[in-house]
Amino acid sequence: MKYVGSMFAKTVTGISAASLTGTVTSTTGIDCKGFDEALIIWNIGTIAATADQTVNIQEAGTNAAASFANVTGACFGEHLAATDLETYVGTINLRKRKRYIRVRSVTSAATAVVAGVNVVLLGAASMPATQENTNAFRV
User: Fold this and answer.
1) Which of 43, 54, 47 is nearest to 13 (CA)?
2) Which of 12, 47, 58, 76 is the 20 to 30 Å CA partner of 23?
3) For residue 74, what pLDDT is reported?
4) Is 117 exposed, middle or buried (0-12, 13-18, 19+ CB in 10 A)?
5) Higher-confidence position of 125 and 2
6) Between 24 and 81, where is the model more confident?
């Protein structure tokens, strides 16, 4: 059988690409049941000179906003204008985590940070993995 990545992985929008200003942005929980690993991809566009952004991953046993807590070590740290226009990647072993994860972004200052975060769930126990969006192409 030919390997088709979309059978084993599911891509989820963690934080939609947007211009974020002085906000705390948290996604709803991403259900990780049936997956082995999460690949977190943070795409930073332009960070204004007086702004910064920190992105971390939280987990919870239920998808209730109040039950999420930070995953120790799953933080990209503070990034300033000098570190804009970059892509950062992190991974989480989901077999050791609670069922739901979410992405949390803290942006300081009233000036904008343009960024987005995608989560790729890997190692689907049941195949093919159900996608949130249809494949745009397969070449």
Assistant:
1) 43
2) 12
3) 95
4) buried
5) 125
6) 24
Domain ranges (residues) in the chain: 5-122
Q: Following CA atoms 70, 109, 87, 122 in sequence, which dihedral angle do they give, to the nearest 10 degrees?
A: 30
Give CA–CA dist 115/134, Å, rounded: 23
Token pair listed for 70: 């930070």
Which CATH class name applies to 5-122?
mainly beta
DSSP per-residue letters across the chain: ----HHHHEEEEEEEEEEEE-S-EEEPPPEE-TT-SEEEEEEEEEEE-TT-EEEEEEEEESSS-GGG-EEEEEEEEEEEEGGG-SEEEEEEEEGGGS-SEEEEEEEE-SSS-EEEEEEEEEES-SSSSPPPSS--S---
Where do we find the tokens 């082995």?
36
Question: Nearest-CA neighbor of 36 among 121, 99, 102?
Answer: 121
pTM equals 0.87
Q: Tens digit of pLDDT for each residue in 6-25?
A: 778 899 988 888 888 888 88
